Amino acid sequence: QVQLVESGGGSVQAGGSLRLSCVAAPSDVYSTTCMGWFRQAPGKEREEVAIDRKGLASYTDSVKGRFTISKTSAKNTLYLQMDSLKPEDTAMYYCAAVACSTMKGLYWGQGTQVTVSS
Fold first, then answer.
1. In the sheet that 18-25 helps form, which strands lie side by side, from edge to edge?
2. Residue 82 near residue 13, CB atoms below 8 Å
């Protein structure tokens, strides 16, 4: 059974930084899926934030240049470095394993809250 456990969320002021972590088990989920981060703000639909497409990163336009997705060499921890945070980044952030061909979500973490104050 695949488990994704996020950590690193919190409250920061605009302009600050946070780094989210996602530990995946078993580790071979990285070889069988594409890993990424999604977020959902209150009253809004869940949106894709960043995806690691087997070494090629993609980002939604609103976070380009501010967020960076990466993973450890051991490939069992996924990160999302978030810099220059804005109040509109406030959301629940989810780690996910998606099907690389369709981007359909296969496994989800429980989420970690990020709150950015102005």
1. 3-7, 18-25, 77-82, 67-71
2. no
- Per residue in 41-79, pLDDT (tens digit) is 999 999 999 999 988 999 999 999 999 999 986 768 999
Locate 111 and state its tokens.
């989420």
Report the distance separating Cα 6 and Cα 86, nearest Å.
Answer: 21
Integer Cα distance of 64 and 68 in angstroms:
8
